[in-house]
Amino acid sequence: MATSKTAAAADAAPAGGSSASKMLIGVLLGVVLVGAGGAGAWFMLGRQSAPAQAAAPVLEKPIFVTVEPFTVNLQDEGRPKFLHLGMTLRVRDEKSRAQVAEFMPELRSRAMLILSNRKPDTLVSTEDKSRVAEEIRTEMNRPLAEDMPSQGIAGVSFNTFVVQ
Prior knowledge:
The protein is an alpha+beta fold. The chain has 2 domains: 1-58; 63-163, 2-Layer Sandwich (Tetrahydropterin Synthase, Chain A). It has helices spanning 2-54, 94-102, 104-116, 126-141; strands at 63-74, 81-91, 153-163. Strands 1-2-3 form a 3-stranded antiparallel sheet. α3 (104-116) packs across α4 (126-141). It is elongated, with a radius of gyration of 40 Å. The N and C termini lie far apart (124 Å). It is found in: Cell inner membrane; Cell membrane. InterPro entries: FliL.
């Protein structure tokens, strides 16, 4: 009987040790799962907030004013040459759009005066056209009267540009 009590005690000891090791494994597995879940949540939330911050600066919708196409005589010795031009003005805001629309005849006249004293060979390359666009923008932005602000024209784009 002493042997049977010793065998029973020996069987009970490993079972108790096995239960403790199972509990330890369960606790460690739980800690690992909670850590992995926390890391996954941090990663996903961190990824979502970065694009929201990057998308914060919203670009304003551009405002364009179309100028009716016009034709000007160019300075040339020999055959008469013409420039047929259509352009669009990009303005900064609605107030600028209203001011440009109100004073369009005077602004068109300024553009015609700039273009009418050109020679045809100065309107050929892309650089020539870019320079002319900047000159037109500068001249059109010049205040119409001493007490008036500039027109707020941010850019000039050509829709039609034909030299004949």
